[in-house]
Structure formats: C-alpha cells, structure tokens
C-alpha cells in the first residue's frame, strides 16, 4: 500500500480515474456516442478551402500513383512490374528509393507563400502514408523517416514553423493508421486482428508524438487496413485528443478511424475520395480531391489533360461550398521538394478568383436552395449576419442578363456584381428576378472563370 501523499499513490490514483472515465477531465468518453457529441470547432466550417499535400518516398519513382509500392509488390500490376524491370536493376527494393527522396529544393517559406496565395485557410501534409515512411524523425519509425534517411531533415517541423511565422494558414496533418508491409500489422491481420501489437507499438505512439510535437489544428486519419476501430483504439485516442491534448479546443478530425467509421463517425465526414454529393448534408463534410485526376502523389508520366483546369476547380469549389462542404485540393510535390509550375499556377489562379469572390465563400452558410432550379450553373450561399444571398454563376450569359428563380425580391432588393458595382434588375413572376449584366471588355471584367451576384433585401 502506498502512502497517502506519495507520488506513486498519486500516479496510481490518476491511472485508476483515467481507466474508469477514459480521461482525466472526462468530458468525452471513449465511445462513439460521446466522441460524436463534440461540437465541430467553428474555424473549420468558416475556412471552406484547404490544400492537401501528398509527399513521401513514392515521390521518387513518381510513376502511376502514390500506391506505387503496393501496386508493384503487393498486387504485382504488370505496368508497375515492367516499369521496375525496365528502369532499375535486379534486386532493387522499394527501400532503395528512400536515399533519393532528397528534398534539396524544399523551401517551407516558398511553399507557404504559394499556399497562402491560393486563398486556402488550412493545409494538410502527409506525415506518413501507407508506405510507413515518416516525414519527421519518429522514434517509432527507426531508419525509415526523413531525419534518418533521405533529406536528413524534419520536414514536418519546417513547414509547421513557416506556416506559423509568415501566414494565417492552419496546420493539418495526415497520418495513415496502417502500413502495407509492416510485419507487426501483417501478423495482426493474419490473426484476424485479435491481437493489436501494431497499433500499440507503432500507430498510437506516432499519433501522440505528432500531436504533442507539432500541435496541429486538424488531424486527417486514413488507411484502416480493413481493421475495425476497436483494433486501433480510435475512441480511446480521440478521447485523449479532445480532453487532454494541447490542441483539445481547436483540433478537428475526420471520419477515417477504422472499418465502418467513414461517413458515420468523427468530426466531419469525407465519405469517399472526391466526394461531391451535389446536395446539402446534415453533417459537415469535406471534398478531398486532386488537381491531377489520376493520382495524389506527383507523377512524371502525367499529361496536360490529366490536370483539372481552373474552370473545373472553381466549379468544384462553388458546388462544394454551396452544399455545405469544404474543399481540400491536393498537390503532389517532387522528390526534391518542388511544387510544379502547373500546380502553382492553379493555386494562384484560385487565389485570384477568391480575392474577388471570397465574400461568397468564407464564413458563409448553405442557403435554403443550393442551386438554381431554372438556370443551370448557378449556386447559392448565404451570409447570415448581413442577410446577403450570393449567386455564383459559372458561365457569362451571351444574352446580357441572367435569371435567378430562387430569391424572393422586394422593393428594397439590391444586386451587386462582386468586384464591379450595383446592377439593374426586374422582378419576374411568379418569383425570382432578371439581372442585367454589363457589357465589359475582358480587361474590365472583375474576374475570370466564374462570377458572383450579391443580393440584399431579398429572402
């Protein structure tokens, strides 16, 4: 028995309370019912737009997909097997790519400038993908991390520091729960996940490590390896994250915490990659998608037609936000740390558009109608405090006017083209209005690619 004031007694008492309640504070218990009751921090819904960054050893072969290792040696897809046989010597292993992940051109401040110029409000960096290689010097990934092998630098720390020093961008970190070829995971899987050696010795320690070290405001979990959330102890970790972690008040999480949790549990839903339902959901959601339509990681074999145009990207942003979602748009840097000019161009173009139309995106809510029921390509948002309706239209009519069927106008209704000035309009029957658009040369257009009408005094 320990003395009443001894350190050992206090430690045992603390452990006993923790085991009973799931945490010391105990506000959120390690159950999905409790975890899902936590309100989503407001900043995430207000932000609307973020940048995803897929970067790792897969950026070295930069062929096909960031799933290169699995497609080559897991599924043995012929195109990947032939690529290796043609370009690398016999016996070459995936681990042999790691020394070539050099990041010599990686400049965190330059990246931050590009991301900030896009108008994004947060970034999500892949700290570890399914290959298991960590972009920080993890104690739990010995000799398979960016400090021990490759750049010999803590890439996560460099980007986190640059974000906080020179921008208002919030830091998000992606982390894969499972690893394709880790022997502990493969052994647990062979035992039908009745043992949990891999999460106990690898996944969970890494998660605690990155949260405590880098204090992200978003944690993007992925890759359950077909294992249930109980195997990953997801609710136990999330209870600590929400109750005790250094980011417990601001942290946002997604829904990928084990088989069966996606689109069901967590802070916000991702449902599937490139999820874009086209209608309002009852729960906050995010559309994670890629500029390169075929891959999240950089591909040397990409062609120009594989990259989405700025028109397509803005259309996706507008549709997503109108339906209550956030857009997380992915870029794939090169092995040496460059963001390709085509990615940079798309990001800066998005920022140019948001400089004019951001009022219709940031801090808005979904309106009662997401898109116009008569005029195609018109999407709505709503700013509650100002009682303003925003109608974003994706093509400029050649008729000189545009018909909006959804707003109910009054004598005091005013319509303004963002970046220009108020416009004339006429009411229509039984409802709606016809807005007369100015005839402008390209040099005087307020923006390109899509335009926004701001309506006040309407309902």
UniProtKB/TrEMBL annotation:
Biological processes, Gene Ontology terms: fucose metabolic process; glycoside catabolic process
SMART domains given in the database record: Alpha_L_fucos
Gene Ontology MF, one: alpha-L-fucosidase activity
UniProt keyword list: Glycoprotein, Glycosidase, Hydrolase, Signal
Keyword Transferase in record: no
Domain Glycoside hydrolase family 29 N-terminal: 26-359
PANTHER family given in the database record: ALPHA-L-FUCOSIDASE, PLASMA ALPHA-L-FUCOSIDASE
Name recorded for this polypeptide: Alpha-L-fucosidase
Gene designation per UniProt: FUCA2
């Amino acid at each position: 028995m320990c003395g009443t004031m001894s350190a050992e007694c206090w430690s045992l008492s603390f452990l006993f309370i923790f085991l009973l309640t799931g945490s010391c504070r105990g506000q959120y218990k390690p159950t999905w019912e409790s975890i899902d009751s936590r309100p989503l921090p407001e900043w995430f819904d207000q932000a609307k737009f973020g940048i995803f960054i897929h970067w790792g050893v897969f950026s070295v072969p930069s062929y096909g997909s960031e799933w290169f290792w699995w497609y080559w040696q897991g599924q043995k897809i012929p195109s990947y097997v032939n690529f290796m046989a043609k370009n690398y010597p016999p016996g070459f292993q995936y681990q042999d790519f790691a020394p070539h992940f050099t990041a010599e051109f990686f400049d965190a401040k330059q990246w931050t400038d590009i991301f900030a110029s896009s108008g994004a409000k947060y970034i999500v960096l892949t700290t570890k993908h399914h290959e298991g290689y960590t972009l920080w010097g993890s104690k739990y990934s010995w000799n398979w991390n960016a400090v021990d092998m490759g750049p010999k630098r803590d890439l996560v720390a460099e980007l986190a520091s640059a974000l906080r020093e020179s921008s208002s961008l919030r830091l998000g970190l992606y982390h894969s729960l499972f690893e394709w070829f880790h022997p502990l995971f493969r052994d647990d899987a062979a035992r039908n996940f009745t043992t949990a050696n891999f999460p106990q010795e690898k996944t969970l320690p890494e998660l605690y490590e990155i949260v405590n070290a880098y204090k992200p405001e978003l944690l993007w979990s992925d890759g359950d390896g077909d294992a249930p959330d109980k195997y990953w102890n997801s609710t136990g970790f999330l209870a600590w994250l929400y109750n005790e972690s250094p980011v417990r008040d601001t942290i946002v999480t997604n829904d990928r915490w084990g088989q069966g949790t996606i689109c069901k549990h967590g802070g916000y839903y991702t449902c599937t990659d490139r999820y874009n339902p086209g209608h309002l959901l009852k729960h906050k959601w995010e559309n994670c998608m890629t500029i390169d339509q075929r891959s999240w990681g950089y591909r040397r074999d990409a062609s120009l037609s594989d990259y989405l145009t700025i028109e397509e990207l803005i259309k996706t942003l507008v549709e997503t936000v109108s339906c209550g979602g956030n857009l997380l748009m992915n870029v794939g840097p090169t092995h040496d740390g460059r963001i390709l000019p085509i990615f940079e161009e798309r990001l800066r173009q998005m920022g140019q558009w948001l400089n004019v139309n951001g009022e219709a995106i940031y801090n808005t809510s979904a309106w009662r109608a997401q898109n116009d029921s008569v005029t195609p390509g018109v999407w709505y948002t709503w700013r509650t405090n100002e009682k303003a309706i925003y109608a974003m239209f994706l093509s400029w009519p050649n008729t000189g006017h545009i018909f909006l069927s959804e707003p109910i106008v009054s004598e005091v209704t005013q319509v303004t083209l963002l970046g220009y000035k108020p416009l004339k309009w006429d009411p229509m029957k039984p409802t709606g209005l016809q807005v007369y658009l100015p005839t402008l040369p390209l040099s005087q257009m307020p923006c390109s690619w899509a335009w926004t009408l701001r309506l006040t005094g309407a309902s």
